[in-house]
Description:
Elements: H1 3-22, H2 50-55, H3 59-90, H4 96-124, E1 126-127, E2 130-131, H5 140-152, H6 155-169, H7 174-200, H8 205-235, E3 238-243, E4 246-251
Helix pairs in contact: 1-3, 3-4, 3-7, 3-8, 4-5, 5-7, 6-7, 7-8
Amino acid sequence: xxxxxxxxxxxxxxxxxxxxxxxxxxxxxxxxxxxxxxxxxxxxxxxxxxxxxxxxxxxxxxxxxxxxxxxxxxxxxxxxxxxxxxxxxxxxxxxxxxxxxxxxxxxxxxxxxxxxxxxxxxxxxxxxxxxxxxxxxxxxxxxxxxxxxxxxxxxxxxxxxxxxxxxxxxxxxxxxxxxxxxxxxxxxxxxxxxxxxxxxxxxxxxxxxxxxxxxxxxxxxxxxxxxxxxxxxxxxxxxxxxxxxxxxxxxxxxxxxxxxxxxxxx
Length: 266
């Protein structure tokens, strides 16, 4: 495995530990730095279950759920998805696409869990008769998250079709470009939506800075390696592909060996 990928995995492990300790648990509040049901230390500020009966839901449980929701979403989009994309281009050998698929599916599972917890919150947390989806100042976060989730379900299919078609023809087909474009749109959109989640949660300035730094580090690494890989791809000589008993010249992909191995890198 490439040194860059190993270094990013190490940084990811460290970042995940930091996120688990620091992710805020408060709810949207009045803009003064405290959530509507939280004090400055992350507690609910009311000291007991009596207020839970008034608002109609368990505040501490809801804050814990949202904390886990935020951690899972952050790890998926800020760390796992960029690393999976980098691994596709940086890991040598014919099984690079397998590593890419496994890492990305792991991130997808984390995001599904994060989205499920987010949906749980929107169902349980209500302000009077108003759900979180009906509050215009915060509903953009769950709406964007659900759109991302729906589109992401097509990514494994696009990736599989790309691999099969590239193995057969030796060049990118429509599925390749769909997989590339969708992935390159969803990752930054997910990172931005995570930042919006921090905004509506009135999280601390320190955590917002930490989230921004992680996003920049992994984002720049992802973009840099993608640009370098595309540059190398454009300079590669063509390869010979047997297509319907004809010898056809096709552009060579990065780190390619025999057709059907790492040629399917996108």
